[in-house]
UniProtKB/TrEMBL annotation:
Gene3D superfamilies: Phosphoglycerate mutase-like. CDD domains: HP_PGM_like (cd07067). This is Histidine phosphatase family protein. It comes from Allokutzneria multivorans. Pfam families: His_Phos_1 (PF00300). The lineage of its organism: Bacteria, Bacillati, Actinomycetota, Actinomycetes, Pseudonocardiales. Residues 1-21 are annotated as: Disordered.
Amino acid sequence: MLVRHAESEIPRPGGPDEYHRPLTATGLAQAASLVLPRPTRVVSSPYLRAVQTVAPLGLPVDTVHELREWDSGLQPSPDYARHYAASWADPEMARPGGESLAQLTSRAVAALTALADGGVVVVGSHGTFVARALAGFGVSTVDWPFSAAMPMPAVYRIRFSAGHPHVSGPGLGGDAA
């Protein structure tokens, strides 16, 4: 179960860094009301907002650095959407100090595949990470508009059968891969 975090504080210059930016009061309520199957394990990005989203499940939350959000190489900016759209148009492009979306896709697929152990693993992460993971697992309808419109929180189910991922969740219309 791949979970995009609930509503979080908006990034802002001088605000909490990515590791410490929390959920809003609404986001905490959203996290508390998530309905998921009883997991055998809960893992998360080390970013606070992702941990806060999956913590109400009642199991210890293991943090895994590879589940972190995309490092776009951008500082918080009101015109981030223009930059993100350019990155989606050219996934190989990386800004100085950042990673490309292609690199994120490889990281996301490898991290999630390594967690597939046959149990119900709940993974807390982030919008761009989730979108690129879905794209990496072959969901052809995932693009910048899909990523930008992804709800907070959003839950996607990835089932591995004979080594092949089958993905379902919001905006996908059932199994998409």
